[in-house]
User: Which sequence fits this backbone?
C-alpha cells in the first residue's frame, strides 16, 4: 500500500461511486418489480419520486466514472518513480496483476455508463416512462461490474509495493518482444495500419452522414463506431504514438497524456470516448423508435447523437492527421526489428 | 441548444439571487468549505514542491555512490579499491569523497563537513566530471555555489545556516576540537549562497588535508566513492558488478535515493490527508445537515416554484447549480489561499509537521510547483464528498408537494 494523496482520492472515488450505485440499484430492483404506471398506489408514487433521485445519483456516478478513469491513469503515471524500471503508466499498471484488468473494466464501465445516460435522457422525454424497465435492467447489469472495478482497484493499490521491478513501456509495447498483446499490437506494420485506420474512418464517417441525412443504416453505424473505436485504440499504439513522440520505436499509449506532449492524449481519448458512446447510443435507441410516446422526438434525438458522434470522430481524425503531418518523423519504409 | 443555455442561465440567475438572500447561512458553509480545501491544498502543495526540489537537486548527484560496510555499518573506504571499480566496463570516472559530521557542543548542532571534489591532496589524479543531465530541458541545480571564495589550507567555506547560528561571517575564525583533543583554528573564507540553502545550510567546505587532520584519517582511506556511468541503462549492471567484485562494498544508485525521498514525502502527505479526513468527514456531515435542514421559508419557496410550473428536475437543476457555485467558489478560493500560504509565507501552519526539525534548520523558499494532478486530487478529496452528501437532501427538497409546502408556513 502506498499512502499517496492521489491513491487516496482514487479509492475514495471508487467507494463513493459503488456506494451510490448500490443505493440506486436497490430502488432500481423495486422499480423493476413493482412499477405500474397505471396504478395510483402509494408504492408507485414513491417509486416515481425515487426515479428522480436515481437518475440524479447516476448522472453523478457516471460523471465521476469519467473523471476517475483519467485520474486512474494519471495516478499510475505519477507513481512511476517509485518502481524500478517503470517509466510511465504502462510500467506502473504492470506492477501487479490487477492494474490492467482495472483499466479495461474502467473503460468498459465508462462506455456502458454513457449508454445508460443516453437511455435515461430518451426515457425522460416520454410522458409515461416508456423505457424505465429496460433502463433499470441495464443498471442492474452494470452494477456488478462497477463493484468489481472498485474491488480490483483496491486490490491494485493495496498490493502495490514500491521497489518491485516492473517492465517499462519500452519493453512492454516494443516490437522486439514477441509475446503479449501490447507488443503484438505494436508490431503491426505502421504503414498498413494507417491504411486500415483511414479506410475505417472514411467508412464510419460516410455511413454516419448517410444515416443523418436518410435515417437508414443506424445499426451499421453503431457497429462501425465500435469498430472505429477499437481500430483507433490499436492505431494509437501502432502508429499515432510514433508520430507524437517522433520516435520510430516508442509505442506507448500512456506517455501521450504526459505534460511533455502538452496533454494531447487527454483530448484524443476524450474525443474517442465521446464518439463511441454517442455512436453506440444510436444503436441502443433505434429499437424504441416506434414507442408511441417517444415517436415525436426520438428520431431527431438519434440523428443528433449520430451527428455528434460523426463530428467527434472527424475531429479526432483531423487531430491525428495534423499530428502526423506536423511531426518531424517520416515513416518512409517499414523498419523490421 | 441556445434554448437550453438560456434556460440554464435563468436558473443560475435565480439561484444566485436566492443564495444572496440567505447570506449568513451560506457564508458559514462557504467559509468552512474554503478552510477544508485550504488545509488539504496546503499539504499537497508543500509535499509536491519539496519532492520536486529534492528531484532537482538529486539530478546533479552522482549515479552511484559506493560505501564500504563493516558489520552492517558504514566504514572508511580503502583507496586501493578504486582501481578495481575503474576497471569495470561502463564506468566513466571514479571520484573519492571525504565528508563527515562534526558535533558542535557550543550550539548543540551537527555540521556536515565536505571536501569539494579535486581538493584532496592524497588523490592527485582527481578530475572533475560533468554529470550528464538525462532529464532533458530541466535545469540542474548545483549542490552549492562557492560565491567566488577560494578554499585554501586552514580555511573553511560555511553554509548560511551555520553563519546565522554562530553569528559569524567572512574572515572570522572558528575553533574546532580535533580527534586527539587538539584545538584547530580555521579562518572562514566565505559563505555559501542562500539559494542552495535546502542542502547547504549546515555544510562546511574544507580542504582534504585539514579534514584528515581534524578527524585523524590516514591518506589511504576516504569516506566513500562516487562513480559516473555514461549510459543510464548500464547503471544497475555496474552497481551489481561492484557488488560482485567487492563484496564488502555497498553501491547506492541515485534513483534509489530519489525513490526513497518520493516515498517519504508521499507518505507524509498521505498521512496528513488521512488525519485531515476526520475534518473532511465532519465537514461532510455539516454539509448534509445544512442541505437537509430546509427552513420554512425555503420550503415555501420550492413549493411556490413548483406551483407556478417548475418541475422536480428543474428544482434539482437549480440545486445542482447552487452546489456547483458554492463548490467552485470554495475550491478556487481555498487553492489560491493555499498557494499564498505555501509559496509566499513559507507554510507557517504545517512547517513543523512536514519538514522535521533540528537546531540547524535551513531557511528556504519553495519554488512554486502546481500541476493538474494535485488539482484533480484535491477536487476528488473535497468537491466529490460534498456533492455526494448533498444529493439526497436535494432530492428530498425537490420532491416536496407544493400544497403541503405552502400550507405549513410557520415562519
Assistant:
Amino acid at each position: 500500500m502506498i499512502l499517496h494523496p492521489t491513491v487516496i482520492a482514487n479509492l475514495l472515488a471508487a467507494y463513493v461511486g459503488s456506494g451510490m450505485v448500490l443505493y440506486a440499484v436497490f430502488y432500481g430492483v423495486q422499480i423493476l418489480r413493482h412499477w405500474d404506471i397505471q396504478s395510483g398506489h402509494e408504492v408507485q408514487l414513491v417509486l416515481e419520486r425515487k426515479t428522480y433521485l436515481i437518475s440524479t445519483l447516476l448522472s453523478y456516478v457516471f460523471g465521476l466514472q469519467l473523471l476517475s478513469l483519467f485520474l486512474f491513469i494519471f495516478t499510475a503515471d505519477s507513481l512511476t518513480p517509485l518502481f524500478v524500471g517503470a517509466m510511465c503508466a504502462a510500467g506502473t499498471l504492470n506492477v501487479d496483476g490487477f492494474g490492467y484488468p482495472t483499466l479495461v473494466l474502467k473503460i468498459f464501465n465508462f462506455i456502458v455508463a454513457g449508454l445508460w445516460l443516453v437511455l435515461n435522457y430518451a426515457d425522460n422525454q416520454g410522458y409515461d416512462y416508456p423505457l424505465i424497465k429496460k433502463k433499470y435492467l441495464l443498471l442492474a447489469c452494470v452494477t456488478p461490474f462497477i463493484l468489481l472495478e472498485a474491488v480490483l482497484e483496491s486490490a491494485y493499490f493495496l498490493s502495490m509495493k514500491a521497489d518491485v521491478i516492473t517492465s517499462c513501456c519500452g519493453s512492454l509495447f516494443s516490437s522486439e518482444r514477441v509475446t503479449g498483446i501490447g507488443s503484438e499490437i505494436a508490431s503491426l506494420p505502421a504503414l498498413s495500419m494507417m491504411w486500415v485506420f483511414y479506410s475505417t474512418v472514411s467508412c464510419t464517417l460516410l455511413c454516419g452522414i448517410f444515416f443523418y441525412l436518410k435515417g437508414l443504416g443506424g445499426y451499421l453505424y453503431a457497429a462501425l463506431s465500435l469498430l472505429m473505436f477499437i481500430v483507433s485504440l490499436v492505431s494509437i499504439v501502432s502508429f499515432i504514438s510514433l508520430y507524437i513522440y517522433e520516435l520510430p520505436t516508442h509505442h506507448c499509449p500512456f506517455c501521450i497524456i504526459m505534460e511533455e506532449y502538452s496533454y494531447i492524449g487527454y483530448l484524443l481519448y476524450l474525443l474517442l470516448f465521446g464518439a463511441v458512446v454517442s455512436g453506440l447510443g444510436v444503436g441502443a435507441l433505434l429499437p424504441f423508435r416506434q414507442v408511441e410516446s417517444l415517436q415525436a422526438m426520438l428520431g431527431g434525438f438519434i440523428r443528433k447523437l449520430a451527428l455528434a458522434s460523426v463530428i467527434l470522430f472527424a475531429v479526432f481524425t483531423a487531430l491525428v492527421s495534423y499530428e502526423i503531418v506536423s511531426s518531424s518523423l517520416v515513416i518512409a519504409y517499414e523498419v523490421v526489428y | 441548444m441556445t434554448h437550453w443555455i438560456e434556460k440554464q442561465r435563468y436558473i443560475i440567475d435565480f439561484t444566485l439571487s436566492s443564495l444572496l438572500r440567505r447570506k449568513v447561512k451560506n457564508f458559514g458553509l462557504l467559509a468552512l468549505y474554503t478552510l477544508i480545501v485550504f488545509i488539504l491544498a496546503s499539504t499537497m502543495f508543500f509535499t509536491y514542491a519539496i519532492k520536486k526540489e529534492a528531484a532537482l537537486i538529486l539530478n546533479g548527484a552522482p549515479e552511484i555512490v559506493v560505501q564500504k560496510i563493516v558489520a552492517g555499518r558504514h566504514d572508511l573506504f580503502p583507496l586501493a579499491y578504486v582501481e578495481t571499480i575503474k576497471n569495470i566496463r561502463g564506468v566513466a570516472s571514479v571520484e573519492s569523497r571525504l565528508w563527515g559530521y562534526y558535533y558542535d557542543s557550543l550550539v548543540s548542532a551537527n555540521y556536515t563537513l565536505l571536501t569539494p571534489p579535486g581538493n584532496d591532496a592524497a588523490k592527485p589524479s582527481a578530475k572533475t566530471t560533468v554529470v550528464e543531465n538525462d532529464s532533458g530541458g530541466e535545469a540542474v541545480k548545483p549542490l552549492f555555489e562557492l560565491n567566488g571564495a577560494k578554499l585554501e589550507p586552514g580555511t573553511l567555506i560555511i553554509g548560511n545556516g551555520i553563519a546565522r547560528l554562530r553569528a559569524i561571517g567572512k574572515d572570522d575564525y572558528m575553533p574546532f576540537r580535533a580527534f586527539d583533543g587538539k584545538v584547530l583554528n580555521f579562518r572562514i573564507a566565505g559563505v555559501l549562497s542562500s539559494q542552495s540553502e535546502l542542502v547547504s545550510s549546515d555544510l562546511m567546505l574544507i580542504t582534504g588535508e585539514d579534514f584528515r587532520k581534524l578527524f585523524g584519517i590516514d591518506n589511504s582511506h576516504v569516506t566513500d566513492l562516487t562513480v559516473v556511468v555514461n549510459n543510464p541503462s548500464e547503471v544497475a549492471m555496474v552497481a551489481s558488478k561492484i557488488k560482485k567484485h567487492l563484496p564488502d562494498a555497498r553501491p547506492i544508485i541515485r534513483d534509489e535515493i530519489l525513490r526513497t525521498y518520493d516515498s517519504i514525502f508521499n507518505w507524509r502527505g498521505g498521512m496528513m490527508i488521512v488525519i485531515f479526513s476526520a475534518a473532511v468527514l465532519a465537514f461532510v456531515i455539516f454539509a448534509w445537515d445544512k442541505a437537509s435542514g430546509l427552513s420554512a421559508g425555503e420550503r415555501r419557496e420550492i413549493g411556490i416554484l413548483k406551483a407556478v410550473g417548475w418541475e422536480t428536475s428543474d428544482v434539482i437543476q437549480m440545486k445542482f447549480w447552487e452546489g456547483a457555485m458554492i463548490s467552485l467558489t470554495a475550491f478556487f478560493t481555498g487553492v489560491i489561499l493555499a498557494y499564498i500560504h505555501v509559496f509566499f509565507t513559507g507554510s507557517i501552519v504545517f512547517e513543523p509537521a512536514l519538514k522535521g526539525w533540528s537546531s540547524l534548520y535551513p531557511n528556504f523558499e519553495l519554488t512554486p510547483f502546481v500541476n493538474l494532478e494535485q488539482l484533480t486530487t484535491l477536487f476528488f478529496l473535497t468537491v466529490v464528498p460534498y456533492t455526494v452528501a448533498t444529493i439526497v437532501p436535494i432530492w428530498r427538497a425537490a420532491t416536496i408537494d407544493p400544497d403541503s409546502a405552502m400550507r405549513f408556513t410557520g415562519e
In short: Chain A has two domains: 1-165, 168-337. The radius of gyration of chain A is 22 Å.
